[in-house]
Design brief:
about 260 residues; 10 strands; Rossmann fold; ABC_transporter-like_ATP-bd; alpha/beta; nucleotide-binding; ABC transporter ATP-binding protein; binds adenosine-5'-triphosphate; ATP hydrolysis activity; 4-stranded antiparallel β-sheet
Length: about 260
């Protein structure tokens, strides 16, 4: 699909985003601009509020303060399924890869979901044949051609994660949220998945929480650092990684 000429460069933004849990402020005054065609990393020490920000953006949590805009629409009061339908998709929302189904079958199931949050099993797998061309496109794009007829349970850990990303892409999201996509992977898989993320970000925005800073340095265009729920620094990796406050947050005594 061609990139729309009038597509705003900033596709997802948050202003003054905040979340309190019973008097404890987990996220405070977070401004975020996620751009089309870019990979944006959200990093920070444990408990910094990264997961809470993801949950706020996908509407799994209701913000205590602030607003969220997706493709020009205020989604602050929208429900998770509506937000997914509008094009903001988080990987784990549909990462339920079915172990006994093949790569192709998993993608056909993903492709027939109306909004990525529900699966209809009333259709037989064979009736989904019309979805094969798009499924094969995704399989080729993610380098899974060789494994098209392999059951998900027989894939390596890294390829399983690639299949998860493929099932997410079945929804053609405008903004893809990835929650630690490299977690638990070996070096080789990290390299493969990093290449895939770079490729899929060409025609969408990607926001990812990632602890592997060499991956962040390699593929992310913009980095936002959270600490104790607030933005500590934001910018490209070179700028952020040399910021003394960021270095203290990661290596200092109070991190
Ligand atoms: N439902 C909740 N109720 C109370 N406190 C919560 C809740 N969810 C998160 N918190 C707190 O909010 C803070 C931020 O947590 P969050 O999980 O967002 O951090 P994180 O940056 O994702 O951490 P990690 O890297 O360890 O996953 C933590 O202090 C956590 O204990």
């Amino acid at each position: 699909m061609p990139v729309q000429q009038d597509q705003p460069r900033v596709v997802l933004s948050a202003r003054g985003l905040g979340k309190d849990f019973a008097g404890f402020t987990a996220v405070n005054d977070v401004d975020l601009d996620v751009e089309h065609g870019r990979i944006h990393a959200l990093i920070g020490p444990n408990g910094a509020g990264k997961t809470t920000v993801f949950n706020l953006l996908t509407k799994f949590l209701t913000p205590t303060r602030g607003s969220i805009t997706l493709l020009g629409q205020d989604i602050t009061a929208r429900k998770p399924a509506e937000v997914a339908r509008l094009g903001l998709v988080r990987s784990f929302q549909i990462s339920a890869v079915f172990p006994h189904l093949t790569v192709l079958e998993n993608l056909r199931v993903a492709l027939q979901r109306p909004n990525g949050l529900a699966t209809q099993f009333w259709r037989s797998l064979s009736s989904l044949d019309r979805l094969n061309p798009r499924a094969d496109e995704l399989i080729a794009q993610l380098g899974l051609t060789e494994y098209r007829d392999t059951r998900a349970m027989d894939l390596s850990y890294g390829r399983k994660r690639v299949l998860e990303i493929a099932t997410t892409l079945a929804l053609d999201p405008k903004v893809l949220l990835l929650d630690e996509p490299m977690a638990g992977m070996g070096l080789e898989d990290v390299r493969t998945v990093a290449g895939i993320i770079r490729d899929v970000a060409r025609d969408r925005a990607v926001l990812m929480v990632e602890h592997n800073l060499s991956v962040v340095a390699d593929i992310c265009d913009r980095v936002t650092v959270l600490q104790r729920g607030e933005i500590l620094a934001s910018g490209d990796y070179a700028t952020v990684s040399t910021d003394p406050r960021v270095r203290t947050a990661y290596m200092g005594t109070d991190a």
